[in-house]
Specification:
- With 298 residues, the chain is α/β, with parallel strands linked by helices.
- The protein folds into 3 domains: 110 residues, Tetrapyrrole methylase, N-terminal domain (Cobalt-precorrin-4 Transmethylase, domain 1, 3-Layer(aba) Sandwich), CATH 3.40.1010.10; 106 residues, Tetrapyrrole methylase, C-terminal domain (Methyltransferase, Cobalt-precorrin-4 Transmethylase, Domain 2, 2-Layer Sandwich), CATH 3.30.950; 47 residues.
- Helices cover 42% and strands 16% of the residues.
- It is built from 11 helices and 10 strands.
- The structure holds S-adenosylmethionine.
- The site of S-adenosylmethionine has 22 residues, from strand 7, strand 8 and strand 10.
């Protein structure tokens, strides 16, 4: 959402400048600070025949503050199947259509990719007007490895499904990036800790806005602060670092720890214990614990 404290641009009057070339323009808009709208994005938004947006009130407010007046049409997950054929027909007739989302880059955890695909399939030119996206902004300031990252969007709201997704991601040797809501960040961190281990992590919130903040630390540290203070407010991105070669324990250390744990705990509990202690995935820990338990018996 746009930060309402940022000053609006002066409205622009006068004749409408020349139209952009026909086709679909996928236009990124600010994730907070209005100054992040690129000059090229402004130019396309000022000149397109139609601005296609998720919520006409949200984009209407943003364009008003930028001094841009264009006809808006809504395009969101509920009306997309009905609206898409009409938009494609306009595009085929030679219209220039600017696709925006409420904030950031369309198609990134936002509607857009089906329209892009169908426009491409219909031979309509599709052009990028790149700019802000919360995933990239968060990666750029979190201080976690960025050479490889996996963007996983929003995790499922239900715990079992969320943990299943985390299990799947456990073996990925890359920084994991999630969009998350304040009311769920605590339970998500708890699951991350149990399933992925106590990795380095970051919460990047309210990026480009007045209360921008990046919290860094181990998952357990971020969680402890939330348990003590309550969840942080605003829009946020959760980043979880890769398992990391340096922290990877030796097989001997894990085996010794498992032997110790298996002396008093079930296979499942011993696996959970070493997953937490060594920051390895629960699935891997369970497999190793089973192996050790069999070796101890046999
Ligand atoms: N398409 C958008 C983009 O490219 O950034 C993302 C849309 S997604 C529906 C919205 C989510 O992005 C929020 O719930 C939050 O997780 C994240 N987000 C958006 N703006 C943010 C900001 N200023 N700071 C941190 N996270 C933000």
């Amino acid at each position: 959402m746009i930060d309402p404290r940022e000053p609006a641009a002066e409205p622009r009057d006068g004749a409408r400048p020349a139209q952009p070339q026909p086709g679909l323009w996928v236009v990124a808009t600010p994730i907070g600070h209005l100054g992040d709208l690129s000059p090229r994005a402004r130019e396309i938004l000022e000149r397109a025949d139609i601005v296609l947006c998720e919520d006409t009130r949200v984009t209407g407010r943003m364009l008003e503050r930028l001094g841009i007046r264009r006809p808006l049409e809504s395009y969101h997950e509920h009306n997309a199947p009905r609206v898409r054929p009409r938009i494609l027909a306009r595009l085929k007739e030679g219209a220039s259509v600017a696709l925006v989302s409420d904030a950031g880059t369309p198609g990134i955890s936002d509607p857009g990719y089906r329209l892009v695909r169908e426009a491409r399939e219909a031979g309509i030119p599709v052009r990028a007007v790149p700019g802000p996206s919360a995933v990239i902004a968060a990666l750029s300031v979190a201080g976690l490895p960025t050479d490889r990252f996996l963007f996983a969007g929003f995790l499922p709201a239900r715990r079992t499904a969320r943990r299943r997704v985390l299990e799947e991601l456990g073996a990925v040797r890359a920084t994991l990036v999630f969009y998350e809501a304040p009311h769920r960040i605590g339970e998500t961190l708890r699951d991350v800790l149990e399933v992925l281990g106590d990795r380095e992590a970051a919460i990047a919130r309210e990026l480009t806005k007045l209360h921008e903040e990046v919290r860094t630390g181990r998952v357990s540290e971020l969680l402890a602060r939330i348990e003590a203070e309550g969840p942080p407010k605003g829009e946020m991105v959760l980043l979880v670092g890769p398992p990391g070669e340096r922290e990877r324990p030796s097989e001997e250390d894990v085996a010794a720890a498992l032997d110790e744990a298996l002396a008093s705990l079930s296979v499942r509990d011993a696996a959970a214990e070493i997953a937490r202690r060594f920051g390895i995935s629960r699935r891997e820990a369970y497999r190793l614990a089973l192996e050790r338990a069999r070796a101890r018996k046999g």
